[in-house]
Design brief:
Among the domains are: 62 residues, 3-Layer(aba) Sandwich (MutS, DNA mismatch repair protein, domain I); 54 residues, 5' to 3' exonuclease, C-terminal subdomain (DNA polymerase, domain 1, Orthogonal Bundle), CATH 1.10.150.20; 142 residues, DNA polymerase, Y-family, little finger domain (Dna Ligase, domain 1, 2-Layer Sandwich), CATH 3.30.1490.100. Helix content is 41%, strand content 21%. It contains 15 helices and 13 strands. The chain has a five-stranded mixed sheet with strand order 5-6-1-7-8. Strands 9, 10, 11, 12 and 13 form a five-stranded antiparallel sheet that branches. Helix 7 links the parallel strand 7 and strand 8. The model has no long low-confidence stretch (mean pLDDT 92). The protein binds a DNA duplex through helix 3, helix 9, strand 9, strand 11 and strand 12.
Length: 399
DNA sequence: TCTGGGGTCCTAGGACCC
DNA sequence: TCTGGGGTCCTAGGACCC
């Protein structure tokens, strides 16, 4: 047994293996040894696929039609977000028993700073193995852990550890670990930036590291350029901020809230589109009122049948959470597009510039009327809480 | 049956103000 | 007498992440 290399590596990145698929199959003996795809509904994409399905080339975010072609024998299941949330919360609780410095990234992913826990629990590597065993025993799912001195290297290490493993990257091994990787592996380099960098002949992280900063900045912009240059040398100063994802409360306040929906079939019917805008607005303002926020900028998104998309936004004089105000703004933005028979694939409504509701000063001239609508919204909220979402909805959403 | 839904951040141009 | 120069807000688009 060689010396534990993890002592100067206080950052853990824990990532559940095929989380949605693992949770969906863990209590289903009938799905053992079967390729499983989560998501993949009508006009949808794959949310997660188990490793058997991945052997056929199925990947997350892949159009479900393509996934089914690649693996027709796969069993497709819908995600159970309540169950996923419960499992996720339990897992995150395990992390918080190790250290309060837990930064939750998503349902299935978190960073831990275990600097202050080694005296009590052992080396970072030992902590990683303890967590993996606990999660496996308690939840019946596996995870992978990256152990490193920095956030970005730990993140890359966990990917390398998959599935069901641990990878430690000690400080002296950082460049030999990073530099052979494709530039697309770096956090912040997606499909477009990867293609651009490849066109410039920058294939690996090592190539990035040895490119003059100014050259890089000219190619991808000042901010991303200097960011990538630092990442390429593993010089990531980012620290861990204890954080929940806001969906579970206790997180940072949201800066925007929105909803969008792809139509079952493309449409150019203004009535259908307006009704959808109302449904989406109702959904968003309901969430805003639960969170106690109001917002000033209303943005609509319109995606056409050819998948191109445009946005239009309007900033109101004052923040609001009133359904009717936001809906009126959204429909005006839509009508101002002056679309003639353009077939739409999707519409969306988003409210930005969110502030706590109690900081909003209503102008008196508008006060009476708007307060009336605000109170109507709140009455709807109360009825929804008592009788369910189906109980109260705008008349145009009946039928 | 091509391509979800929820977000964040960056860039860039024009308006506007001092 | 060609054309300052910031800072901030608004809008639109786009890349990226999970």
């Amino acid at each position: 047994m060689s010396a534990d290399p993890s002592h100067s590596c206080p950052i853990l990145h824990v990532d559940m293996d095929a989380f949605y698929a693992s949770v969906a199959t863990r209590n289903r003996p009938d799905l053992q040894g079967v390729p499983v795809i989560v998501g993949g509904g009508y006009r949808g994409v794959v949310l997660s696929a188990n490793y058997l399905a991945r052997q056929y080339g199925v990947r997350s975010a892949m159009p479900s039609t393509r996934a089914r072609r690649l693996c027709p024998q796969a069993v497709v299941v819908a995600p159970d977000f309540e169950e996923l949330g419960r499992v996720s919360s339990s897992v995150m609780e395990n992390f918080r028993r190790v250290t309060p410095l837990v930064e939750v990234v998503s349902l299935d992913e978190a960073f831990l700073d275990v600097r202050g826990s080694t005296r009590r629990l052992g080396s970072p590597l030992e902590i990683a193995e303890q967590l993996r065993a606990t999660i496996h025993d308690e939840q019946g799912i596996t995870c992978s852990v990256g152990v490193a001195a920095s956030v970005s290297v730990a993140k890359l290490a966990s990917r390398r550890a998959k599935p069901d493993g641990v990878v430690v990257v000690p400080p002296e091994g950082i460049t030999s670990f990073l530099h052979p990787l494709d530039v697309g592996e770096l956090w912040g380099v997606g499909e477009k930036t990867q293609a651009m960098l490849h066109r410039l002949g920058l294939m690996t992280v090592g190539d990035l590291a040895h490119t003059p900063l100014r050259t890089l900045q000219r190619a991808v912009g000042a901010t991303l350029g200097s960011h990538l240059h630092e990442l390429a040398w593993g010089a990531d100063r980012r620290t861990i901020t204890p954080r929940n994802v806001s969906a579970f409360g206790g997180g940072d306040p949201d800066k925007s809230m929105g909803a969008q929906e792809t139509f079952g079939r493309d449409t150019d019917d203004r009535e259908v589109i307006a009704r959808e805008l109302l449904r989406l607005t109702t959904k968003v303002t309901g969430r805003m009122r639960v969170a106690g926020v109001a917002g000033r900028t209303v943005t609509i998104t319109v995606r056409f049948a050819d998948f191109t998309a445009i946005t239009r936004s309007r900033t109101l004089p004052e923040a609001t959470d009133v359904t009717l105000e936001i809906y009126r703004t959204a429909t005006r933005l839509y009508d101002a597009l002056g679309l003639q028979r353009a077939r739409l694939r999707l519409v969306g409504v988003r409210v930005e510039g969110l502030v706590p509701r109690e900081t909003v000063q209503r102008q008196l001239v508008l006060g009476e009327r708007e307060r009336g609508w605000s109170e109507a919204d709140r009455a709807v909220d109360r009825a929804t809480r008592r009788f369910g979402a189906a109980a109260v909805r705008p008349a145009s959403l009946l039928s």
